[in-house]
What does this fold into?
Amino acid sequence: MFTTGFKFFFGLTIALAIGAVAYGYSTGGEHVGPVTLGWKGGVGDHVGYLVLIGGAFASACFAGIIVAFRDADPAAQSHYMGVEAIAPTTPVTGSFWPVVGAFGGAAMVLGLVLGPAVFVLGLVICSLVAIEWTMDAWADRATGDAEANKALRDRIMAPFEIPVAGALGVAVMALAASRIFLNATKLGAVVWAGLIAVAIFGLGILYAARPKMNKNVIAGLVLAVGVAVIAGGIVTAVDGQRDFEHHSEHHGDDHGEEHGEDHSEEGEASE
Amino acid sequence: MTMTESPPSEAAESSAAPLPAVGGLYDWLTTSDHKAIGRIWLRFGALSLLFFSVIGVLISFERLDADAIDVFGGVNSYFQMWSLYRFGIVLMVAIPLFVGLATVITPMQVGSTNIAFPRAALAAAWGYVLGSLITVISVLSGGGWGALDGVSGDEADAIRLTLLGTGMVMVSIILGTICVVTTVVSLRTSGMGLTKVPLFAWSMLVAGSVWVLTLPVAIANIAILYIDLSGGAGLFVGAPNPSFDVYAQLAWILDQPAVYAAAVPVLGVAGSIIPVVAKGRQVSHEAMMILIGLAGLLAIGGWSQPFFGDERDTLVYIAFGVAALVPVLASLGGNGATLIAGEAPVGIPPAHMIGALGSMLLFLAATAAGALRVIDPLDLIGTTADTGVLNLVAVAAILGALGGWWFWAPKTDGRLFSGIQGLGAMTFLLLGGVLLGATDVIAGFVDTPDVLLASADDSLGDAMIVLSMIGSIVVLLGVLGALGAISLAYVKPGEADDDPWGGHTLEWATATPPPVGNFAEPPARVRSEAPLLDETPGDEGGES
It folds into this structure.
């Protein structure tokens, strides 16, 4: 009846609640305050007590949800599906998401000191990991067939993953390319833009001409171009932008529309 | 996080193909096999052990003559490295080595195909690695757990980063421990009631529960410190310049009784190894379980936080300090009785036996020193006796973990480690641990101060500091010997049978190295705490 997940969260609830009470008393809690959430006496240090008791409540909610919905409990599922045999289960498959989550956590830790941008990046990574991890955990137990599980997972997640990954890829490439253009001379920027465009166009032509080409070769070429552009972007971003000529001082702001070329350059420079 | 885990019988019925074997960077990053996950903990723990052993030698070298020797470049840097050593040797070495060993061994001991929540276990392992790196790098960048002479600017940021890195390590330990504890509680094979759980798995259940209960309190301390330092409220520290108060607020986790929790698994390692060496059953398995449970109970320490209110002269603190000696002493007696009652071969003892017994002796010395330390008239608190107890516990845990690693090497690494090299390394660690810890305790009797670089006002104290430094060097030699032997085992792997020691518990029923899924078929119904002795042909009664 009680799944492992329920036991985990129930145990965590008990541990956190006891920890909160112990912490409350050890930091100056009075009477029965730490036991009654501060109703009949002080709870000691408020911040630590709140963190622990909040964690206990959150864990209790998770435990309740898991036991209520019989999440991935083969016996319960079989019961509700009206079949006698317990659905065969599959081993947990390997996944990148745990290590990505660890890096996301590290980014959040670093961000708390280095700045909000890094923290938000970590938060976004952890949020994505939470979604992907949840879906993987569900899909692993969906049927007894590992291939079917993978197909089921991809059918649900691919419509989200591919556009998001594509948008992120385009954004990273655009950012990297813009750093290269801003670092190069005017003529150099044109040359670089041409080269990148030719590379992308060339890959497209190659794939169109040889649609049955080994996918590893295509993946390798795409990866090589992508890594080259991103590496170039990082190097040029560190190196900084070229010196820009500023021609707009003798024109007033109210005449800005007449000198769009100059302003667009300044706009690039301030990116 | 995977929320459920299939019982072994169901997993065995699975129609799915087995998971791929582990190898290469890709598999290190994605594996869901508990043995590979445990190896991440073990290997990074071993590297951390080497790093912190070197730091320990440098610290004890500087203590020789505070005026003439300046290894770290100032009193503040000395304090940073001193506190890094103390937090590191417990939180980044001793406990992680046991978490790693348990991640590999406990699922097999309880007859499970995998650990509970394998993906969470993988995240915990990498979280530990990253958290440790963040902590160490931040300390080397001027951070640490406060400062003796006040800091500002970038150093304050580095201190906050140190705190957060420490918190990340703690969270990772909690997560990894929850996976181990849940495995022991929920994934036991048929017939294995809690009273039939092998002693190492039981000790991890006890110690893990204490860690899960204790570390969140320390994380709450860190949260308070971080908010306090960031907001500049100065509620608990001398803001705007963080001072020694940062360390003082977290020091309880390195002090008795909390620090004993790091060494509780030592009792389980010894309880698993000694009967195998003695070639007989543990004299009283249930009594050993009770003693381990009692040791864990007396290691709960979140309630004793001297920074917020010094309970160290209360009756409870004194009672905890004295009582902690009892289960360790009784457990040592129980293992001794098992050795005497068994048929242990005469001759050079195996390395894992030296590790098991040596770690128990060091743990006993730590609790004995702790019992003396709580006696108020002796006035040992605040002296080098604090460090002495910590070092005795830490080396006990390290020796126990290495002894366990030697014993279970066929299952953790798929090969045997050199017995002779192991014997030398364990002996060095035992002798070094005694020198390192006991001398600091003795120096405490002549009021040699802890933390500060003040010379002892006594020739005995000076002599003890010299001996302590020699002890730290001997410990380092032991660590180098142990890690060298492990490395050599990969260069020249020794043949290992499935059960080279004549083990009693289910991990020895698997192949060497264990396959993914651990067991080719579900283990037979367990009838006692030593199921492999029950399976002896012609012995239906369960007694060998």
